Each structure stands twice: as C-alpha cells, then as structure tokens.
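Input.
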Amino acid sequence: MKNNSILNQLIYRFWGTEDKTFLKPLKDSLFLAILFFFFSSAYIIVSDIIAANCSDSIYEMKIAEQVKGLIFLSILTLIMFIISYKYLKKIKINENQLLNYKKIIIAKEREAIAGLMASSIAHDINNLMTVILFTLNILTDNDNVSTKEKKLISDSLEASNKLLTLTKTLSLTGKQKYSSHFQLFNIGKIINDIVNITHSIKKTRDCRITIKQLDEIEALVKPQLISRSVTNLILNAADATENKGIIEISLVAQKTGFCIEVSDNGHGIQDINKEKIFEPFYTSKNDGSGLGMLSVQACVTDHNGTISIGKSSLGGAIFKLFIPYKQDTAGQN
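Output.
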C-alpha cells in the first residue's frame, strides 16, 4: 500500500494527476516503448549482418542501407498508424459518450429544477390559501354579513378550493419531475462514478479531486438525487477554487445514517451567506443560476436528512450531507 501511495505521488508530480485509471495507459506506453526498442535493435543488428554478407562493394552496401531504412520506416509507419487509429477511435467513442451523458444530465437537471420550482411555488401558494380559506370561513359564520356578501364569500371559497386542488396537482407533478424511487444502492459506487465523470468536465478537469474516505454503505436512497447533489457540490467547490484547487470527498458511515462530505481549499463561505445560498436564484457567480444548492436542499429534504456548512481543514468550505437510513436499512453499512 505504501509503495502504491509513493507511485501515485510520483505520477501526480510528473503528470499532474492521481487518477488510478491513468496507470493502465502508462503501463501500455511503457510496454510499447520497450517492445519498440527491442524490435528496432534486433532489426538493426540482423539487417546489418545481412547487408554485410550480401554486399560486395561500398555502393551495394549503400543501396542495402537505403533499402533497409525504407523497410524499417514502412514498418514503423504501419505500426504508428494502427496504434494511433486504435487510440484515436477509442478517444472519439469516449468523447461521443461524454457528450451524450452531458446532454442527458442537462436535460434531467432542467426537469428536476422545473419540478423543484413547481413544488416550491405550489407549497407557498398552499400556505397562503390556508390563510385565505380560514378568513373566508370566519366571514361566512359572521351574522353581520349580508346575504349578497355571503354569496360573494361562498363563490370565493369555491374558487379558492379549486385553486387549492390545482396547486396540489402542481406540487405532485413537480415532485414526480425531480424525485425518483427509493432503491437499495451502493453509495460508494455513486461517489466513484461522479468523481470519474468530473475528471472529464472542463470546470473540474484541472482540480485535484480525491476520495479521502469511502466506507462500504448500502442504503435505500434516490440515487439520481444523491448523484445530482454531490455533482453540484463538487462544481461549486471547483468555482470556489477558481477551477484549479483541491477537492476532497468523504463517505462516512454512522449509526443512524451516512454522511457525504465535500471540502475544498477555496475562499470559504461567510456566515452571513450560509442561509442565503439555499434560497432560489441566489448566486455569487456571474454565470450562476442560483438553483444548484436548491436541488441539494431538495435532495436532503426528500431523504429527511440535514445539511451543514463549516470550515474545511483545507482552508475553504466543507458541506456535510447527512442522510438517515430508511426503515429496515440500518446496519447495511
């Protein structure tokens, strides 16, 4: 384990990455380089012997050397073509997959935000309608109200109840847009998949993203909401570090649930803004929508969890998402 850690540190210092998946192409490249060296050496030695034995003059030796060089160059060109075609084709396939994933993520994010906003608006309207209906019911029981006024109040009650039904429908539709079904899922796999994807995103490509702790946890969750929330937290951390800082992610098992922590070495969050960041459309970025943290809040609420913001040991902010185990899932960590 210690040797692997030292190797990873050396690779990071030289190549600028700690991604373990980088080790495979590094080994492949080293293998091909060694293979090429031995092939070239063997070709030079054998071809020199053949050229010396077949040449009776300096002119014939010169011709043999030229033929030998052209053959070597042709073989090398063919090998380079095959290798480059193979890897460029693989890069193209991966690029197309990433573009498709990006389109799917954007589409899902828009649906989720639209559903979240619909539910939020419907919730606020329901609260206001409760006050209005309460007031109208009091006026209905008032003996000082004339028959004509009671008719107007009755019409207002009927219209208010219809509006309340519509807002409940809107709230239900909105929840269906941003919610998914609870599934027994490996939380560590969700975190690993997100980190692998973020290595290919422009905003986080130059960040040093590492998984500090990853406990084995299986729990009933809504994986799409968890994935979207952690992704938003990582993107926010990248913004806080000007897209080139350190981001650490931890998955910690606890008795009653699990905690996902995302910390960075950015400028942190002032106490006065810790509540504001969860408000719709609040953003400190010029190109921000102000909806990313709202979706994080929605995820936590949907799982009956909590979210807290503190000072990271890296110097920036740390977000802690605590998700309690649903019934019958405690002990599956």
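The two ends are 24 Å apart (CA to CA).
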